[in-house]
């Protein structure tokens, strides 16, 4: 057990910054906070709860695994983080739906290890994509897209798409909490804008039988509402010699489709930007921060007075 414990501590300490582990059954993500002689302290991302994982408990689980393979689904919630860390030691691994000793296991590799790129939360991804887009806009002339080289033009399209998609998801996540706080005629004001409750109705027909019966009750001819069903028409096209241009008017539109995103390259670029920001911690940057704080204070005063 001494060798396995040493391997767990070594691999836990050498995890790449930002990477997390995921519990095998419940899928809870956690990070290693600190490693001590008799314990490894982890923090769960979904609750910020810190929990010590004790060496003696690792020994109990190791003894159980030494007796044979254990079904992953049988792992209890309290055992899951222990099992995830054990698979880093180069002694145990997962095959199929079971975890057990494997002489071919590779230290530092685990099916429960999540890379820093994938471990980011949705707000973090939006922040990172917006930062990359802002950095790109600083060094290109986006007012004249046609003058750009192909590489930056492609990056402009991809990053704009990622920011739009991510920001929209973030916007939707903020919608329900805001609706809970908004009364029928109430407006809420933030620093950057105002929101109010809006009701929009969307109509969809009831089932055919109900609609047709209602028409009959009012003496309305059914033929007035009956039309061509596109789904049924497609079936007819597929099984007869009827041609598409005989029953469809086809309008063709050409657009650019994003087919892939290199998240690893984006993350690598982010690390470079973060390093440069850290290097700005000098008198000039401090002066700039002070100036920005003063501007924000003046804006707050103006908004309060207005």
From TrEMBL:
<protein>
    <submittedName>
        <fullName>Uncharacterized protein</fullName>
    </submittedName>
</protein>
<keyword id="KW-0175">Coiled coil</keyword>
<feature type="coiled-coil region">
    <location>
        <begin position="278"/>
        <end position="305"/>
    </location>
</feature>
<dbReference type="Pfam" id="PF25943">
    <property type="entry name" value="DUF7983"/>
</dbReference>
<dbReference type="InterPro" id="IPR058289">
    <property type="entry name" value="DUF7983"/>
</dbReference>
